[in-house]
Amino acid sequence: MKILILNGSPHIHGATSDMVDAFIEGAKEAGHSVVNINVAHKNIKGCMGCEYCREKGDGVCIQKDDMQSIYPEILVADMIVFASPIYYFTLSAQLQAVIHRTYSIDIPKNVKKTALIMSSGSAYVYGPAIAQYYQSIVEYWGVENAGIFTANSDQNFSQQKREELYNFAKMV
Ligand SMILES: Cc1cc2nc3c(=O)[nH]c(=O)nc-3n(C[C@H](O)[C@H](O)[C@H](O)COP(=O)(O)O)c2cc1C
Fold first, then answer.
1. What pLDDT shows up at residue 62?
2. Which residue's CA is minimally distant from atom 1 of ligand 1?
């Protein structure tokens, strides 16, 4: 399976990336090909809502930024893993921008399943992010939710979470 990871954490060695790294290890061992993109270190603007993509652009976004290299990865992926720290009870703005910019391609036809990985300071803060993930991705795209993983406070950077993500990747 071709797995694309979209990591919205600005911390390359942060808590979200720690879980992502464990997932990658398991996924590669299971024989999957993995593309890991840290979208927080890309130049990705918010959607302008100009409707060019849907009215004249034939699914092509008028904005020319780093999304141009991410669209092809989204279109060939069998599975997409969304990873993000929780910022104000939801996904980071950097990951939100990527999700909003999929408006131009609408539903990526090849994607069959998705997963969500989140890190936070506190527990019980994931409701809005999970609601968005279910409504905007799982239900709208019509894909299988393969799993939702969270780590808060002391769970961040823990061996237990690394094992959870590693084991999950082995069975996706
Ligand atoms: C701008 C900002 C907003 C945050 N909002 C929340 C929040 O609403 N709830 C929470 O539990 N933690 C919040 N946090 C803490 C982060 O989610 C937490 O530190 C997380 O582990 C960071 O992951 P990272 O190391 O991958 O960046 C916030 C942090 C920042 C910088």
1. 98
2. 87
Which CATH code of 3.40.50.620, 2.60.120.40, 3.40.50.360, 3.40.50.2000 fits the domain covering 2-171? 3.40.50.360
Ligand 1 pocket check for 125: Cβ under 6 Å: yes
| Cβ partners under 8 Å of residue 92, min gap 6 | 8, 9, 10, 40, 84, 85
CA distances from 149 to 45, 83, 158 (A): 27, 9, 13
Measured in Å, residue 92 CA sits from the centre of ligand 1 at: 9
Maximum Cα–Cα distance across the chain:
50
For ligand 1, atom 5, the nearest C-alpha belongs to 87
Q: Ligand 1 within 6 A of 169 CB? A: no
- For the stretch 95-108, pLDDT in tens is 999 999 999 999 99
Q: What is the pLDDT of residues 2-40, one digit of tens each?
A: 999 999 999 999 999 999 999 999 999 999 999 999 999
Tell me the pLDDT band of 110, cut-offs 50, 70 and 90: very high
